[in-house]
Design a protein that fits this description.
Number of domains: 2
Largest sheet: none
Structural class: mainly alpha
Shape: elongated
Distance between the termini: 74 Å
Helix content: over 70%
Oligomer: single chain
Length: 189
């Protein structure tokens, strides 16, 4: 009779996620993860088969962790957009290794790009409609504003996680607010 594992899939994913947050994605391999959990490599092999499958499920675990973080809530479009932008900044400051994994990782490059695009696209149409209605601009101008904000926020967040610049989260938040107003004014002209 086969031996039943005592280590659940959830325990393994939680441990991998914890390692990702603390040490970064590169720290996760079968041996280091088994050591983190305090078990042999057998439960990992039993649940996932190989690292590729574990990595795929870890990505889904990360996305599940973020699923509500970027939801569009409310009708005040400026507040909604700044809220989403601020959450990206908070992600970069509070979970830099997770941000790097999702947006700056060379691992599974195509999948990472698709993931980043999926997170951005989730609320795209709703936000465009809100911008059109609230600021009396065309869908094209709203889309251009949104693209400018996405590029700016991801760029500034990337600087923050790599510690290239920016002394505090508050300074970055003010910069994002100012940029948002400037990009919107540009599209209204």
């Amino acid at each position: 009779m086969a031996r039943k594992t005592q280590i659940s899939k959830d325990v393994i994913l939680e441990a991998a996620f914890g390692m990702l947050l603390r040490e970064g994605y590169a720290s996760i391999n079968i041996t280091s993860l088994a050591k983190e959990i305090g078990c042999s490599t057998q439960p990992l092999a039993w649940h996932f088969g190989n690292m590729e499958k574990l990595r795929a499920e870890l990505l889904e675990y990360c996305l599940d962790f973020l699923k509500d973080r970027f939801a569009v809530e409310g009708e005040d479009v400026s507040g909604v957009l700044e809220g989403i932008a601020f959450r990206y900044i908070e992600l970069a400051f509070d979970y830099p290794n997770l941000y790097k994994y999702l947006y700056m990782s060379e691992q599974d490059g195509e999948k990472m790009a698709a993931t980043a695009q999926a997170l951005r696209a989730r609320n795209h149409d709703k936000v465009i409609q809100m911008l059109e209605k609230t600021h009396n601009i065309t869908a094209e101008a709203a889309d251009k504003y949104l693209l400018n904000m996405q590029l700016y926020v991801h760029g500034i967040a990337s600087y923050a996680v790599t510690k290239v610049a920016f002394p505090s989260k508050e300074v970055v938040m003010q910069m994002v607010h100012d940029a948002s107003e400037a990009f919107l004014k540009q599209q209204k002209e």
